[in-house]
Amino acid sequence: MSKRKLDEKDEPTPTAAPQPTSNGASEVSFADLGLDARLVQAVAKQNYEKPTLVQRTAIPLALDGKDVLARAKTGSGKTAAYVLPLLHFILSRKKMDPTSFTSALILVPTRELADQVFKVVEQLSAFCAKDVQAAKLTDKVSDAVQRSILSNNPDIVISTPARVWKCIESSALSVDRLTHLVLDEADLVLSYGYDEDLQNVAKSIPKGVQAMLMSATLTAEVGTLKSVFCRNPKVLDLQERDAEGEGVRQFVVKCGEDEKFLLVYVIIKLQLIKGKCIIFVADVDRCYRLKLFFEQFGIRSCILNSELPVNSRIHVVEEFNKNVYDIIIASDENEVLGDEDQPADDVPNGNVSEAIVQGDNGERMTEKDDAHQDVRAKKKRKTVKRDREYGVSRGIDFRNVACVLNFDLPTSAKSYTHRIGRTARAGQTGMALSFCVPKELYRKHTPTSVETAENDEKVLARIIKQQAKQGKEVKPWNFDMKQVEAFRYRMNDALRAVTKVAIREARTRELRQELLKSEKLKRHFEENPSEMHNLIRHDGELRVARTQAHLKHVPEYLLPKEGKKSLTSGDIGFVPFRKEGKKTRGHKKGKSRGRPFKVGGRKGDPLRTFKARRKTK
């Protein structure tokens, strides 16, 4: 399936946006959308107060039988926007024909997203579970087990394109009576190399299937899929203005390669950023280098990368969302590229709080980005097979993320947009902080260097340009390096302990441990399907590097007298996840909470309070 770029003649002419009800769009309820009463009840149980823009716009069109191509930002409720119409159609059909057959197919690019969509289907069908059966094909099970699952003729099948085509080809899955097809994160599906699988699926499904394509961007890939699966679709370009105090505040720090480790140590250890944090790095080795570096200072973190088994990856995300873990170090090997000359994320002119409904011919499309990669000869070594269906920078619903830290800058502005979409979801506030290596500092510290950093300045210029078109600003976050320098020798001590041998051993050991954990998780969930909780932790220390106990505590003589905020010029970088000014338990007005800035110390000096008694005869 070839990717194409739309020419100027394909430009759409926007038609009128859907008009709100007489009561105003903000007062539209799920019951007003004409959904089955059991679905409205399930929505209420999930505490959805009112439909989001994409839900109140796309659901009526889907219920009317139209093909829909919707673009909406991350965290806007796209999953429920297509799951609810699917469930409504299945329930309506079964009133007349109770026969079970696969009538809906949901295709997603990654296993993590498949698991997430499956859970949403379960939640929204809670009051009609006997009438709706869903199956997920992304679990690693034998062909016989998978055939047994599909033999029950589930109403909804959720899968990646490669896995579903394998089942269709082997006759394990019948799509002869398919009525609905959904492509979630449609702009990513082709990027993950599913071209041939999608072409085969398109040939095997009946003509006239209603299609819904959901995406955060409109790209050439989406245009290609639209031409293959859709019939005169309604194109919804939905943009909502962030409310005051909401959205992502974006900052960048220009620093040397070794200074990345210095600054992240100061930021995390001194809690310049509060709340849960996702740290994106360039590759798998980088994950373990940073994790071992953190361990030197007693900072707990867990890892997500394509080498780890899918059960462990899903469990890490679940525990992170339950606030078990605060820091995830994620490698972004399958990052999304895009054409930087013609950004796909242009915000339409006019009132961005309204929906722009376009006709069949059009959306702004771009072609694939030619990311410049410096190819260097490397020693051959055995590598662990990576999961091509892995992806964390898009689609996964990480909840309550206070900060996205781009430890290694992505190679495209589009990938940057997808990364920072992990924070400030569903009307919350958040922060994105990126480290950028200037050209003159590239390769100045070889042990901590990565090849992608060579183009950091070019990529940053594209990021700033793209964000400016959306009315957003990427501000510099300036550190007072004179005060930060006091921590450099501790950073160097920790880095010297994290050798290549230590990284290799940590990588092997972690993979071995996670394989064992994954099997335990699998057995646990099979025996306890309703209990998505386990005592297995993923943020334990690897302890393969030389540890230095003295690094775990910050001595007071290193701390600035003015407090931790003096480490930065101004207060622009300090973005707490929760709103300031709220009283905490035990805090009484007028009473001091104690010393405002102290890390790892004791309340008193034991030598001053020690009293020796004279030995009496």
Automatic annotation (TrEMBL):
| Catalytic reaction list | ATP + H2O = ADP + phosphate + H(+)
Q: Which cell locations does it reside in?
A: Nucleus
* CDD domains recorded: DEADc_DDX56, SF2_C_DEAD
Q: Which residues form the Helicase ATP-binding domain?
A: 59-236
Limits of the Helicase C-terminal domain: 247-482
For this UniProt record, give its keywords in alphabetical order, as a comma-separated list.
ATP-binding, Helicase, Hydrolase, Nucleotide-binding, Nucleus, Ribosome biogenesis, RNA-binding
Q: What EC number(s) has UniProt assigned to this enzyme?
A: 3.6.4.13
- Class of the enzyme per the UniProt entry, highest EC level: hydrolase
Question: Where's the DEAD-box RNA helicase Q domain?
Answer: 28-56
Task: Extract the PROSITE patterns matched here.
Answer: HELICASE_ATP_BIND_1, HELICASE_CTER, Q_MOTIF
Domain of life according to the entry = Eukaryota
Q: Which Gene3D superfamilies match?
A: P-loop containing nucleotide triphosphate hydrolases
User: Where are the annotated segments for Disordered?
Assistant: 1-27, 362-382, 574-617
Q: Where is the signal peptide?
A: none
Where composition is biased (Polar residues), the residues are: 16-26
Bias (Basic residues): 580-596
A Pfam family: DEAD
Q: Which InterPro entries match?
A: DEAD/DEAH_box_helicase_dom, DEAD_box_RNA_helicase, Helicase_ATP-bd, Helicase_C-like, P-loop_NTPase, RNA_helicase_DEAD_Q_motif
Short motif (Q motif): ranges: 28-56
Q: Residue spans with biased composition (Basic and acidic residues)?
A: 1-12, 362-376
PANTHER family, per this entry? ATP-DEPENDENT RNA HELICASE RHLE-RELATED, DEAD-BOX HELICASE 56
Family of this protein: Belongs to the DEAD box helicase family. DDX56/DBP9 subfamily.
**Role played:** ATP-binding RNA helicase involved in the biogenesis of 60S ribosomal subunits and is required for the normal formation of 25S and 5.8S rRNAs.
Q: What is this protein called?
A: RNA helicase
Q: Which organism is it from?
A: Phialemonium thermophilum
